Amino acid sequence: MANHNHREVMPNQALRSLFSYKNMIKILAILAICAIFLLPIYRLIMLSFTSDGNLTFLNYTTILQDAATWQVVQNTVLVVAGSTVVSLIIGVSLAWLVAYTDIRAKRVMQIFIVLPFVIPSYITTLAWTQFLGTDGLYMKLASLPPFSVEPIDLYSLAGIIFVLGFSHYPLVYLLTVSVFRKIPRELELASRASGAKRSTTFRKVNMPLALPGIVSGGFLAFLANLDNFGIPAFLGIPAQINVLSTYIYQQVVGFGPSAFSRAATFSVLLGIVALIGTAIQWLFLRKSKRLETTIEDKQPRYFLGKRKWLVELIIWVLFFVTGVVPLISMGMTSLITAYGVDFTLQTISLENYQFILNTSSKAKEALGNSAMLAGVTAAVGIVIGTAIAYLRVRKPNFLSKFTEVSIGLPYALPGTVMALSMIFAWMEPVPGWNPGIYGSIMILFIAYITRFLILQVRGSITAVMQVDLSMEEAAHVSGAKGWSKWRKILLPLLIPGVLTGAFLVFLSALTELTVSSLLWSSNSETIGVVIFGFEQAGYTTYTTAFSSLIVLLIILGFIILYVSQSYWNRKVGKRT
Amino acid sequence: GCGQAQEGNASSVSGELNFYTSQPDADAEKLISAFNEHYPDVNVTVYRSGTEEVISKVQAEKQAGEVQADVLLVADSVTFESLKKQEMLLEYKSDEAEQIPESFVDPDGMYTGTKVMSTALVVNSEKVSEMPTSWTALTDADSSGQVVMPSPLYSGAAAYNLGVLTRNDEFGWKFYENVKANEPMITQGNGDVLKAVANGEKSYGMVVDFIVARAEADGSPVKLVYPDEGVPVITEPIGIMQKTDNQPAAKAFVDFVLSQEGQELAAEIGYTPIREGVSAPKGLKTIEEMSVLEADINELYQNRELDKEQFNQLFGE
Amino acid sequence: MTTIIEDLLKKFDQTTALQNINISIQDGEFIAILGPSGCGKTTLLRLLAGFDSPSDGSITIGDQQVSTKYVTLPPEKRNIGMVFQSFALWPHLNVRKHIEFPLLHHQYVPADIRANTAKRVDEVMKIIELTELANRMPNELSGGQKQRVALGRAIAPKPELLLMDEPLSNLDAELRMEMRKEIQELHHLTNATIVYVTHDQAEALAMADRIVVMNKGKIEQIGTPQEIYSRPTTAFVANFVGKANLIQGTWESDQFTPASYPAITWPDLGVSIPLKKQGIYPIRPEQLEIVKDQQGIEGEITSVQYQGKEIHYTVQADGMDWVVHSGMMEKFRLGERIVLQLKVAVKEEQKEVVYS
Amino acid sequence: MTTIIEDLLKKFDQTTALQNINISIQDGEFIAILGPSGCGKTTLLRLLAGFDSPSDGSITIGDQQVSTKYVTLPPEKRNIGMVFQSFALWPHLNVRKHIEFPLLHHQYVPADIRANTAKRVDEVMKIIELTELANRMPNELSGGQKQRVALGRAIAPKPELLLMDEPLSNLDAELRMEMRKEIQELHHLTNATIVYVTHDQAEALAMADRIVVMNKGKIEQIGTPQEIYSRPTTAFVANFVGKANLIQGTWESDQFTPASYPAITWPDLGVSIPLKKQGIYPIRPEQLEIVKDQQGIEGEITSVQYQGKEIHYTVQADGMDWVVHSGMMEKFRLGERIVLQLKVAVKEEQKEVVYS
Ligand SMILES: Nc1ncnc2c1ncn2[C@@H]1O[C@H](COP(=O)(O)OP(=O)(O)OP(=O)(O)O)[C@@H](O)[C@H]1O
Ligand SMILES: Nc1ncnc2c1ncn2[C@@H]1O[C@H](COP(=O)(O)OP(=O)(O)OP(=O)(O)O)[C@@H](O)[C@H]1O
Ligand SMILES: [Mg+2]
Ligand SMILES: [Mg+2]
User: Fold this and answer.
1) Beta strand segments in chain B, E
2) CB under 8 Å to A440, separation ≥6 — which residues?
3) Pocket flag, ligand 2, residue C135 (CB < 6 Å)
4) D144 lines ligand 1 (CB under 6 A)
5) D: neighbours with 3+ CB pairs under 8 Å?
6) Which atom of ligand 1 lies closest to the CA of C18?
7) CA atoms of B289 and B314, how far apart (whole Å)
8) Is the shortest distance between the CB of D224 and ligand 2 below 6 Å?
9) Residues A510, A513, A519, CA angle at the centre, nearest 5°?
10) Which chains touch A (3 or more CB pairs under 8 A)?
């Protein structure tokens, strides 16, 4: 049983160490990190209080008195809450099935689960609208049964909620599945020996114990739903539904000197929504208790028996609609010569791929740039993010909470706002001094780290929360501290969660679009920028070809990873 | 570089030039490499994105300290008008501008149109057999549920069109009210309009001409129609930023874009050139062939927010 | 509700944790499973609970076959309570909630308890002496307190079959005594069948109706405490339960001659046939006497452990360690050379016990 | 390296887990901390290890003050080994790696061991009898096996101060005996100072040089095993260590008269002054004799526990439960009415022990 895990690491020592040289550095580092994250936000907030160059509340008074504002806020809250719930339900259910039951092909499923996260959301949306459109597959199927089936209108609040929820459930899944696996079997068995049915056991034992993962995943999904622009734009504009992210964009592109101030003011409102989400998340996490430390237990705990095929069928249908349909629709578009022509043997060709790979030099460069950017961001994230997560869990003081909030906000801001505030912050971090970061590739590194570090922090927090303090105490009495403790004890125990975080950071950075499209310079084009460019020029076929290529590369990466993993396992042998 | 110093002052033009544009990537690239043939010592750095993004970036840079752009080329003159009002532009009257219709050149020399992009009708050629000839295709009761157009709230070009059409006696707000009655689909940008029509989701769209011509040439089932009433046009003006730190290069760049060679290049890429005497690419009308719907730029600039607001009210209920 | 375990086999990969397990447990019986660390006690209990499926063999409870290689009735459908060796407390529930949990969920909870859940919880809290800590979370409890919570949770719904895996190992002697009594009382009152895993032979001897002694995954002997203690049938049991010194030698009719001391003969004090066949004479530590300057087995004292009312000596003699428990009358020092003798006086008493 | 604990106080929120703790531990001493569940033993050990900071008071090891309210020397800088009550094994390391770990990392590992890490690991593996399971992961070990790994990890680097939190509670008697011997041998060989937490008074009596008896966060008595067992100074110690029945009455010079039986007088068998002052006469279970048809304290047998070589009776008499341990000579049945007598014969022997 987790003994003594409530204790903080030597509280007085922590205090004393404030004054030691080594910890001075640590604290300076934290302050620097805060500064990096807070500078853009600070600039943004200042802007929201600026009108005609004066400090004033004017923006707030006008905006808050406008009924439209409240409509937008209401829509936002509805959309974000609804889609987060959808993500939670799908993510947690899938995680449970994969972690505990004997369904087959779990590894292959992992790929399909991640698909919605790597397929650009405008493609997903398009696929969905086509699927459910007037002459889409859905209506064709719907005309089969004798009774009438209502057409589903995606251009609605419900549609936005639905598509957002389905796009972001991987976040919940990825952060939950390993936590589920780490819950000691005996805790479940104790419940069942007490007569609780499986469902009760899940509700009363697994759910509360997996809270760190579920809450972290839900929180990330919440932030992702909040900042998402593509889906509410695509589905909301036709239906005249505004949420904060689209509304802010309208302000940004609006004219006049007050455009930015208005946008900043709305961003502050959005920030407040994000803060409320953070607070709710804390409420849940406060209740969560640390488990006895175990390694992931991958043996199935529940045998579905005769119902197995049914469950598997449902899962694959889900994958089909969330991953395969968009993938196919994207793939098909990428193979035709011109948008809108029918997909027939005559019309397919590899022309578009040839264009991207041979004719256009940009695409290849962008692949390289993005891979490098994403790799470095993920690597830096692992170190900084895990360090922050560790401090946050082991020393939950004001400073570490504050750090967590500052790191979370940039992920919640819509990309456009985030990019603009990066410009505010980094062109002349100190007025009158331009360090040349803006305009070089450095700005993208900083922007990506600022924006995506929270993914790593949450992944690592989830992992650290699974490690009982006694693990570290045992290392300490055995004489290991600092680096050797991390290398030999903590990292091996943290690795699944840390890698999940890094994986999310890597994928997000790899396909990032909005921020890069405002910050790139001509020598540092990223995948997102190139896609954005094609799309704006009306070259949808190139866009889809490029996107397909990237998704294929990602899938290939997965396969290589799995193959080498199983090769490694076989070679090393499961511990004797 | 090919070191072809045919112009006397070419060698004195050199250094860095930041070019911010909303032109598609490939087009910008071609433009620059042609420019570099004449001015090999100028290193042009391009920032390319949607007009809205480009302007946001410029504005943000201004807020943050200093605008990095030297030369700006974005969709419409109203946008430039606003920059002009904010005194962000440098006055430069290029000699080349004399060949360009007066109405497309800012009288104060702050910006000059570089090409002509009209907003016309796009029609799905598979769903519609008889091509319409009038904007009424969007307002006919038959077209109910089959109309798509970009949102002026998101697209600068669409906002321009809104301003022009509502100030035109033949159309006015009545036109938009009638469109509204057909329950149109409103998209974020022109690209989405083309897609909706190309894949048959909608039959008629209001969209900028050149992307339709391209898609048509590629084989998409779409057709470009210039309605008889005329079309609003945007001119993708070019201008030099007030704070540019390389005036000679910036001016040389503007000259090149407006020159015969520059305009022929634009036509070759697929745009209607703005310079008289240069022919339009296949599928597009030249400026002389189309009837242009116009409105006073200053008035448009002054009323843009109001127009959008009114649009929002009309369509938002 | 008798429980019958037949030919049970359990393998983990290469390890065979259990084999040839045959036990039939009577309704209301108190069975102790006694054996050294790693002998498979927990594994057996887990099979009884339905947490694992056997690799072969079967378990029948009442007239229902609950576990075979193919089908295993899940634990929640068995009317059981279980105390886990590792406690398995839920980190997110406080003490009270732990006790309450099975009362709310167990389908077999007697109606009167179900109607008065709160009362029953209070009652159990009193039994496990944690009333004052009702709102504590598991991580705020000491090791023994945790164990008591685990115990309380298992007994609360008065299950018909109570499985306990070393439920008292973390308790001090005092509390252990009390808990033993509680468990025994519980046994008398509810007449539940109890399977009680322990490595502590005193506990097994004191509480159980019958003891199953296990070693290396197999059953060594099943019998009443008296049988196990006084008439062990294997060397292992003699040593494990009685701490007996096992002397090799030859049995001739009822006389034993140690191999190394042909001059000595010992009478039969109740040695079982199987041990006799193996030529073993088991002498429990209290059957030996340490004397000086007399005839007997000569040796040297290599360890002295004070135990309050007696002293435990280890004596090195004849190349082996002899364990001797002696009273406080006379004391010997570490390293002293002494002589060991069998207390033959014990004989009569011992025989009586064996055959009673 | 003496360890001095002064005025130690430790609070958790509302609970005071330790108070007024003053112990001075000699270099090389074997100290047992004995007390009931939840009395603060683990808390004390954690403070000694440096995992927690005291709320007040100080701990000095050698000439360094290692723990005060303000400053706490971290555990890795103390030359200690520790066995955790909850084992705290690392789930990702196998048995061998656990033993190896401190050898690789502890800064105080003796040079000869450091040079021969592999040899030392083998040695320790043999001591804890896990050589064959060297490659097992913690989740593949039984409870007792886990505990042995925890023990091995702590002793491997031969620390100067060895802290053990119930290191044997999950082992069977046999193995426990062996481990006890190992620990004692280790103690003799390395001359490490050992602080050994246990709730088992037999263990404490058998192994320790001195015993610290704790109750409810306070020290009840510190003394050698003999002192603690034979001359308890508090009622708690008499009961907890000697299982003594505590009889209220009056002392007059060396004579005791139980309050309920004015006719009886008992002689002083070595009762400490503090107990006399409280008017208490402690009688250990083996000091009582059950007889029939004689004069004495009349009562009824309410519980019989067979213990192999003796039988433990609980006798209800005079409104209290008397615990009596008696040999196998004569047996009494549950419910039988009997008479209790003090074995005065024990007197001489007892006195001798006390004053020796
Ligand atoms: N999952 C497993 N994989 C491999 N071996 C296992 C596994 N679980 C238990 N064992 C082995 O099976 C044997 C029996 O284990 P079990 O836990 O039943 O012992 P036990 O009798 O309860 O011991 P203890 O008194 O120490 O708790 C041990 O040798 C143990 O190492
Ligand atoms: N974090 C905590 N918060 C509140 N009370 C605590 C906390 N940790 C321990 N306690 C309490 O402090 C007291 C002493 O606990 P400790 O773990 O030292 O007991 P122990 O003597 O080791 O008992 P055991 O033999 O049962 O392990 C107990 O009453 C326990 O409930
Ligand atoms: Mg066990
Ligand atoms: Mg403890």
Assistant:
1) 15-21, 42-48, 71-73, 89-90, 111-112, 115-124, 147-150, 185-187, 204-208, 222-225, 231-234, 238-241, 272-273, 292-293
2) A521, A524
3) no
4) yes
5) A, C
6) 14
7) 34
8) no
9) 100
10) B, C, D
Shortest alpha-carbon distance between residue C90 and chain D (Å):
16
pLDDT in tens, C36-93: 888 899 899 989 988 888 999 999 988 889 999 888 888 888 888 888 877 888 888 8
> Which chain C residues have a beta carbon less than 8 Å from that of D202?
173, 307-308
Instruction: Report the separation in Å between the CA atom of D227 and the middle of ligand 4, taken as the mean of its atom positions.
Output: 25
Three-state secondary-structure class, residue D249: strand
Q: Note the pLDDT tens digit of each residue in D329-353.
A: 778 888 889 988 888 654 444 433 3
Enumerate residues 6+ apart whose C-beta is below 8 A from B91.
B108, B109, B110
Q: Which domains does chain A have, with CATH numbers?
A: 350-576 (1.10.3720.10)
Q: Helices D117-127 & D95-105, crossing angle to 10 degrees?
A: 130
Residues with Cβ within 8 Å of residue B245, at least 6 apart in sequence: B70
Task: Identify which of C256, C196, C159, C215 has the alpha carbon closest to the alpha carbon of residue C19.
Answer: C215
How large is the average pLDDT for residues A245-269? Answer: 80
Query: Going by C-beta distance under 8 Å and a sequence separation of 6 or more, which residues neighbour residue D185?
Result: none
Decide: D110 in ligand 1 pocket, CB within 6 A.
Answer: no
Contact status of D146 with chain A (Cβ, < 8 Å): no
Question: Can you name the residues that pair with C267 across neighbouring β-strands?
Answer: C255
* Of residues B199, B222, B235, B258, the one with CA closest to residue B119: B235
3-state secondary structure A40-60: HHHHHHHHHCEECCEECCHHH
Ligand nearest to the CA of D144: 1
Which residue type does D74 have?
Answer: P
Q: Is A10 left (phi over 0), alpha (psi -120 to 50) or beta?
A: left
Residue A377 confidence class, pLDDT cut points 50, 70, 90: very high
Q: Is A435 helix (H, G, I), strand (E, B) or coil?
A: coil
What residue's CA is closest to ligand 2, atom 23? D38
How does pLDDT run across B241-284, given as a tens digit for each residue? 988 888 899 999 999 999 988 888 888 888 888 888 888 887 78
Q: Does B169 touch chain A (CB under 8 A)?
A: no
Ligand 1 atom 10 nearest Cα: D140
**Residue C341 near residue C305, CB atoms below 8 Å:** no
Min Cα distance C71 → chain D (Å) is: 24
* pLDDT tier, A135 (very low <50, low <70, confident <90, very high otherwise): low
Please state, rounded to an integer, the average pLDDT across all residues of chain C.
84
D28 SS3 class? coil
Separation between Cα atoms, residue A533 and residue A528, nearest integer Å: 8
Which pair of tokens denotes residue A211? Answer: 């809270």
What's the pTM? 0.79
